[in-house]
Amino acid sequence: MTDMQLFAPLAGWAVPLAAVPDPVFAEGMMGQGMAIDPTGDTLHAPCDAIVLTVHAAGHAITLAVSEGVSMLMHIGIDTVAMGGAGFTPLVQPGDRVTAGSPLIRFDLDRIVRGAAAAITPVLVLDHDGVTVTERCGEGPVSVGDPLMRVRFDGVGAKVTPSTTDTAAGEIVRQDVVVQLPHGLHARPAARIVATVRGHDVRVDFRRGDAVVSAASAVALLSLGLAHGAKVTIEATGPDAAAAIAAIEPLLISEANTQVPAVAPRAVAAPVELAEGAIGGVTAAPGLAVGTGWWLRPALPDVPAHGEGVAIERTRLATGIDAVARTLAEAAATPGQMGGVLKAHQAILDDPTLIDRAVQAIDAGAAAASAILTAAVEQGAQLRASGNARIAERADDIHDVALRVVHAILGTEAAPLDVPAGAIVLAHDLLPSQLAALAGQKVGGFAVVGGGPTSHVAILAAGMGVPMLVALGEPLDAVADGTMLVIDADGGALHVDPDADRLDRAQATIASRAAAEAAARAAGDRPTVMADGTAVSVYANLGSIADARAAADAGAEGCGLLRTEFLFLDRATAPTEAEQAADYGGVAAALAGKPVVIRLLDVGGDKPAPYLDIAAEENPALGVRGIRVALAQPQILETQLRAILSVADVEHCRIMVPMVASVDEMIAVRTVLDRLRGELGIGPVQLGAMVETPAAAITADLLAAHVDFLSVGSNDLTQYVLAMDRGNPALAAGIDGLHPAVLRLIQSACRGAATRGVPVSVCGGLAADPLAVPILLGLGVRTLSVPPARVPATKALVAALSLAQATAQAEAAVAVDSAGAVRALARRFAEELAR
Question: pTM of the full predicted structure?
Fold first, then answer.
């Protein structure tokens, strides 16, 4: 038996293969190994070897590292589509290389921008008699650091057990022209090998005089089959015809070899940036000036190898129990943090996560290492889902796993001591880290990765602290102590700003602070514009604690109570009594102010398993919102009864989500009126959310059947622009200030006005200070925002006149892009500040 040490071929962050967002690699179809998320720009030889193949696109290389043992290194995911741009091979097939020899130079920035991911699998290809052992732990590696060891004895390419039996017999042949746009590369090769192993057959590929076994991915790649190349498939055995029929499509279309799309990081909107600014995605609005402070949490020293299965299983169980108790206590915290921690409880209860950790322990891992590995694997699956909201939950899984690691090792996360007013810079930010910072006077958050719908984004918005995410690698160049202006309203981080920008930012901050202080001092007195026009500023709520915070902030009511929080992350639907208690608690906290309760809004990206909503190819256009309630009338009736049982029901209003037709409103009102009659309850206002273009354009028709309309700008934007707001690859274009969205809001206001029906906005636009003047000018008279944004919104409204707002709205709907609207709005904001 031979043992060989393989060294890291790249500088970067080493992770288990399961973390690669591509099942071909993550599930071991190509072989065993590790992966590295690179920080360098050159791929090196991991040992002495002979170069077997270099892909024509320059992104992948195979090496013979010993007789019968070969390796594949594949720089990035889906990099074949880059067509060689950014890759410079430094060797060619047949070259002998020594450990550390440079093999391929690449442009990392170009890969990050142009490919699904930069993470690089380093694989020992699938052979009998080969075992990868002693993998390094997750963490930073430099070129030449020990990465893993390989043991092998009597090796040869792995083939199906029946190969010998099927070698004889009639040969079935099929000539195929390769139509894959990028030729035969790693993914289709892996699919072909898997197909061969799934049949009782021997398959060879013949090109000219070269004949190779289709049971070997390296052999297939060695043929260099480019787009348009001709190849003959030869199969022998009982399944010969079936195998060829299954293999041929894999050479024809990439669609047949594709895996679930990788969820890329959110992309910053294409705004016009000042020199020295970095563009990002707004997660929480606001403006702040401060020095940068990098969050570099020290990870505990996690042992890789266990001290025995029984010992490590006990350690894992003890650690989980300790964290479960901590989370149970902390989840009782009122407000959004309590809700996040309840979600973390559900993660800790997930049997899949625990089973994976136990399997790692049974394979020899230490308990702490096992739970981290399990979290990486599960997080990789979420990131590969193609859905931004689902992918963002990978950070929550990692957060929970780190809690368990600390519990197992008896350590604690190091305290975070941030200078007052600093802008916290981070690669990623976990909910527990943000919770640790909540009591400190943080100026803002700027994050390399992340997304606008993550838990930390929600928490930052609740804190009233500006936050930008998806700033990308340019943020890495910002040093600790650098002066920064974080303009989360404009989606930009200004690095080392000049004196003029700094003065203007500080003046705006001071002006806003004074106005907000005045708004707070005015309490919940009605908001009026500078010319006396009445405008109501309500709050969006998800809990009783939110309602108390909104009341303290001076909110004049609740414009959106998200009742789905009661329904999610549980095995059964909440009872009528549970719902009534929650709705009643919110109404009591707001003491006689209006409370708009949205009926259950699930489906799409908010699943509730006990509602038995079938999986859909396009859930955003499927059974969601009021369609769920009408399809399951017991859910609708229970919720309406709970609302009608609230002691202060005369101040409650009921809002119907995802309305697309008058018939839906008539159906809900029919049920509501019947229940009111049964319970002896007087009239209760019923309204519709304007989230579909259909609702916006037929607002005049809906107005005959509703008491109010409320624009859900987030969903309205995705449906108007035909862009899934859960797809971060489209984040640059999903902007509620697009003229098409504004024109539909204008249409809704005009249609509602024909019957004197008021229109509010409860979506994200209402909290955007650049959007507020435009919305008021379009005819909106109620804005509903997060509690922390109530004083700022009231102050902004008080500084505006209706004439100014109307002029802004008219100008906004006349320009041709969201970027032009935002530029217009920024100029107006600067003039207003002066």
Answer: 0.58
